[in-house]
Specification:
CATH architecture: 4-Layer Sandwich
Number of domains: 1
Order of helices and strands: EHEEEEHEEEEE
Number of helices: 2
CATH class: Alpha Beta
Shape: globular
Strand order of the largest sheet: 3-2-1-9-10
Oligomer: single chain
CATH topology: Purple Acid Phosphatase, chain A, domain 2
Number of strands: 10
CATH superfamily: Metallo-dependent phosphatases
Length: 171
Amino acid sequence: MGQFRKDIIRVGVISDSHLRDTADSILLLEGLIESYLQPIDVLLHAGDLIAPGLLDHFEGFPVYAVRGNMDPATTDLPYKRIVQIGPVRIGLIHGWGPACGLEQAVLNEFSDNRLDCLVYGHTHRPVCHYKGGLLFFNPGSPTDKRGMKYHTVGLLEIAGTEIRGKIIQID
């Protein structure tokens, strides 16, 4: 990733959007970004896009995504990836199976890598906490709250080598 020339880098984070590639879906994603995340420098999507082509409609910032369990196997999206933003390394993966034990399972996928933050999805439940100096971050879902009170998206702020997360409730 190129060098950012600002004090704080803002990273929008979405997962489990489960949208079809339609004009309404594009408007919904654009509205989420404009209303709840802007201004952002980077966008991460932690899988279950359903229509990966939706990400082609965003310009003005880099977009990184991974394939979720509901995404087509034919997509070019990787199963997992590491996104380097300045000095910060973010592991990006969707996840699978039951929520119980998911954090350890996705962490194991990056066992040979140094990470500052691990972004995942799958559960539709927002998570933002540190464990052993690593930020675990799940933005929840903007479209399917599965028993949660609110739909949610996430925001990461990077200042130097520090990374902080925030879960944003959608009205």
